[in-house]
Amino acid sequence: MKMRSAILILTLALAGCGVGRVGAPPAVFDLGLDSRPTPQLPAREPVALVFSAVPTLSSTGVIWRVGDSATPKSYATYRWASSPSDLVRQRLIERLSRQGPVLAERASGQTPQLQVYLSQFEQVFTPDGAASEGRVLLQAVLLNGRSVVGQVRIATQAPAPTQDAAGGVAALRQATDDAADQLAQWLASQAKAAARPGG
């Protein structure tokens, strides 16, 4: 019962019942400027990025959940400036471009293709609501022609400084940059294989 009560209280507090806020515009967040240093990696050849995400990440809601609950929720008075799918895609382009060109589509059949699928981008609370973290989960496959060069699953977490929407956004910013850096490092390790002709 105590656990259920804690979850109920947390749900009501985070959802925001809107009392006294009728007609107030929602607060809007994005991932901020890409100012964090990236890993020192060798330059690479161009890669074409094909990005997709689960349907729940195509809207602008700031998603949160309690523990491993199967039901995600969105803050009532907070929104992303664009969908998480768009925000993460743009951040990956920004950070991966520091090692080499990232193309929207293949320039030729010889251009390696990086397929990225975003399956999680949310703030996850402990059952008592005392702490939370931003979680980002993506899968990537690198193709050379029709051949699979390599694939990787990247899961990152970052602690939220505060247990609210702003804290969740800060945590997701860090988790996204961590995921982008891990993807850049993995891509660098695959570059030689991807560059071989005849895929």
UniProtKB/TrEMBL annotation:
Gene3D superfamilies: ABC-type transport auxiliary lipoprotein component
Domain ABC-type transport auxiliary lipoprotein component: 54-184
Keywords for the protein's UniProt record, in alphabetical order: Signal
Keyword Signal (UniProt): yes
Pfam family, one: ABC_trans_aux
InterPro entries: ABC_trans_aux
Coiled coil ranges: none
Signal peptide: 1-24
Claim: Signal is one of the keywords in the record: yes
The protein's name in its UniProt record: ABC-type transport auxiliary lipoprotein component domain-containing protein
